[in-house]
Amino acid sequence: xxxxxxARLFKVILSDWKGTVRGRPTREIAISAKASLYDxxxxxxxxxxxxxxxxxxxxxxxxxxxxxxxGYESFADVGAGxxxxxxxxxxxxxxxxxxxxxxxxxxxxxxxxxMIVQYLGETEVKPGQKLPIITxxxxxxxxxxxxxxxxEYEDEEV
Length: 158
Prior knowledge:
Shape: globular
Structural class: mainly beta
Order of helices and strands: EEHEEHHEEE
CATH topology: Structural Genomics Hypothetical 15.5 Kd Protein In mrcA-pckA Intergenic Region, Chain A
CATH architecture: Roll
CATH superfamily: MM3350-like
Distance between the termini: 72 Å
Number of helices: 3
Mean pLDDT: 87
Number of domains: 1
Radius of gyration: 17 Å
CATH class: Alpha Beta
Strand content: 25-35%
Largest sheet: 7 strands, antiparallel
């Protein structure tokens, strides 16, 4: 008898700075129930064709992340976080336990990319299917760095 691995299903909306979600790019992601918040963030960020090259955090206050009562930050994993625990050791099953539950994934504290992560519930993985996977993708993500030309940030000679 073969049992299929249990997975958690998430819908992610790449919001704008104002919190607008209508017409914005979305991704649906299936990930192992045993995965960490870091794993969820990594697949989410990469699903929008962004490089995982900045700090990030999960926050329970979607409109004003600085007022969050619950949060998890990548800063804490490198000893820089003071307010919230890290993301590497926290399992998604500890944080996301109720279908329709949402958290804000804030990526790159400078540019403040806001991704609304909604837990949809448990799902079974088909035999041979490797997790995590993107089960649905709508809309094109914007360029992470806009239209930066090569060398634009290089020091100018004086």
